[in-house]
Amino acid sequence: MDEAVLRQIVEAVLQELGQSGGRNPACDGYDRLLVVGDPADVPEKLRQNYEVLPIDDYKCNRNIHRYQAILITKLDLAALSDIALGRDGCPESCAVVNGLLAGLDVCMLESALPHRKYAGKGSSRLYQLIESNVRLIQTFGVKMLGQAPVVPAAANVNPPIHRLPEVSAPKGSGMPNADRLITESAAREMVLKCGPEIRLPAGTMITPSAWDIFLRNHINVVRE
């Protein structure tokens, strides 16, 4: 087949897909879920309620209003940094930044963050710097999805009662308050009283402003 004719056919097909939005007829009536990462990692309960579209769909259309929600299944450090700084340097960060600005629901799987496999193994300060970007994009509206079911349980099912374990702070560490929450004021007090390293019980929550205090004062935070 002549190359020019083949090119015309390809262009016509792409134009037709653009006019129809590349919509799968079997998913008519479903909201569109844009996936940043591998679509195969989308939880099954989300697949039942959305038409799942890969990032290539956004690369082709560059229209964030095509989608009703965004799910991040994998995010490299460059894209994470871009989102934290509000930059659209790559299609992944561009989609997330524009999605947040447009008011879309943006969620991220816990497994989407590859740096977390190095927790406690190397430079704790570098790890905390990367984690500060994770906390920052959460303040923008990115919701974390863990291993819990995406769809809530039925209203007539009583959830299990979870009790916080008794905790004791090691010598020389900061003692969390009754809610096990480290606030900015508590962080300032710890910086004055403790050395370059602070040890906290597992499960202690630290506010973003408290993290900033620790980072500015080069404090190494270790969770027991």
Account of the protein in words:
The protein is an alpha/beta fold. It has two domains: 30-150, Rossmann fold; 164-224, no CATH class. It is 38% helix and 16% strand. The protein is built from eight helices and nine strands. It has helices at 3-20, 44-47, 55-61, 77-84, 91-102, 124-140, 184-193, 208-216; strands at 31-36, 50-54, 69-72, 105-109, 142-145, 181-182, 197-200, 205-206, 220-223. A five-stranded parallel beta sheet has the order 2-1-3-4-5.
Features:
single chain; 224 residues; alpha/beta; Rossmann fold; 2 domains; five-stranded parallel sheet; two-stranded parallel ribbon; 8 helices; elongated
Q: Based on helices, strands and strand pairing, what is the structural class?
A: alpha/beta
How are the strands of the largest sheet arranged? 2-1-3-4-5
State the order of secondary-structure elements, H for helix, E for strand. HEHEHEHHEHEEHEEHE
Give me the CATH fold name of the largest domain.
Rossmann fold
What is the overall number of helices? Answer: 8
Which percent band covers the strand fraction? 15-25%
Count of spatially separate domains = 2
What is the CATH-assigned architecture of the largest domain?
3-Layer(aba) Sandwich
**Envelope shape:** elongated
**Main sheet?**
5 strands, parallel
Head-to-tail CA distance between termini: 68 Å
CATH hierarchy, class of the largest domain: Alpha Beta
Total E-strand runs: 9
Low-confidence stretches: 147-157
How big is the Rg?
Answer: 22 Å
